[in-house]
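Aim 2 progress update. The chain analyzed this quarter is reproduced below.
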Amino acid sequence: MTEKNRKKHKTTSNILLKSYYGNNNPGEYPFISGIYPKMYQDKLWTMRQYAGFSSASKSNERYHYLLNQGVSGLSIAFDLPTQTGYDSDHELSTGEIGKVGVPISTIEDMRILLKDIPLDKVSISMTINSTAIVLLSFLIVLAEENKIPLQKLKGTLQNDILKEYIARGTYIYPPKQSMKLVTDVFEYCSKHMKNWNTISISGYHIREAGATAVEELAFTFSNAIAYTQAAIDKGLDVNIFSQKMSFFFNSHNNFFEEIAKFRAARKIWANIMKEKFNVTNKKGLMCRFHTQTAGSTLQAQQIDNNIIRTTMQATAAILGGTQSLHTNSKDEALALPTEQSAQTALRTQQILAYETGLPDVTDPLAGSYYIESLTKEIENKTLALIDQVDKMGGAISAIENNFQQNKIADSAFEYQKSIDNNEQIIVGVNKFTNSAIQENNSILEINQKSIDSQLKRLTQFKKTRLSDNVKHSLDLLSTSIKDDENLIPNIINCIKNSCTLGEICDTIKKEYGEF
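Predicted structure tokens:
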């Protein structure tokens, strides 16, 4: 069924539906009921599936499979060495190559990863932070090789380093130096990549670390305030770069709280941008966000139950007005998802989109006493916590004082204690367990041959390049760091001269130091 002939305005009993039933104005400031007037009646959310496997070639196969199954955007997962600036052959990469995503050390890896993917037609999301500036540069070089104008590239770079210090840990450089890399991306993309979202400020990982819904919003928006101010201090026009800022939120188990959280998020961000930063551009006031269902809620026991958890979380995200969505696969508590479980996760979105009537009305729960009250409560509590961070000097100062980290640790402890005490029931874990039933689940295993092939290709890559060109381009990068220039042009030059990700990151590390 195409977008044009999809039923939108009547039920199966031929009851005609209005576009919207609430008292707000969807598509208008402060966007509490949605950033567009008709939301999914005009266009469904982007269906993404996050994927990255033990090799670039296997990942490429999965991307083509997902595109053939109907995804409308790709989301790339990178392995830990790539996320933390190490080549696959570094001693610290041992045991981690290809474990939680794809290893990318060279431009050759990137060519294999995105082989035959139409980069001017498919939206690419890259979940990468401390090395985001390097991975974006790899993509730029690949686009140039394929004669694709940079203005035609569509996608999102996570590029959210502050939450790494708060919740996730894949940082390399100190916070202030890392912020320079973030704003270099802002500056470069505002000139050369108008369709590219330069940052996806992530509450997802904050929530996965144990934060509450309120803490997820408050710490995410405090980080966003810091990025916005850093870009303004760099001389960028807030009315321009704010249009390319987006967010990445978690959809957790408490169904109604999550819906209210998404509604509150739009209002909070619109008010911050309007009142704190004097943004006048309508798009710059919009809280546009991608949602992923909560990986931390998936259980290794009775994994089919995870399909129901994911379905409810996805429904909350849709009712909350997300712009794109990833649904987790049932086996992700055990391993990277199999092809079959990834298909089931995608089919979950497609069933919600085409069989349920969910897209037919904008913000269907608008006006509900419960939802409206929850939305207001979450807004008030979030603003109070943001104010606490502001009084500490902002997100970076608070991070340096471990404020966010301690709050999240306390919340995680309380949640786990509630499970241990059976106050919070987790089906199949602390109640309704089937200890006598042995589950026979097929899970994906990392292929050692893929890792060996990655290392062999990297060795060959380093052998066949011109070492003088490598040294000269890295020296130029080092000079541009000392001169406080935008680093992207020289990182692109390094990549064109066959420098690896690890070599580029080591050069930056020599100048910036490590955190």
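DSSP finds 19 helices and nine strands in the chain. Residues 1-6 have pLDDT under 50 and may be disordered. These observations will guide the mutagenesis experiments scheduled for the next reporting period.
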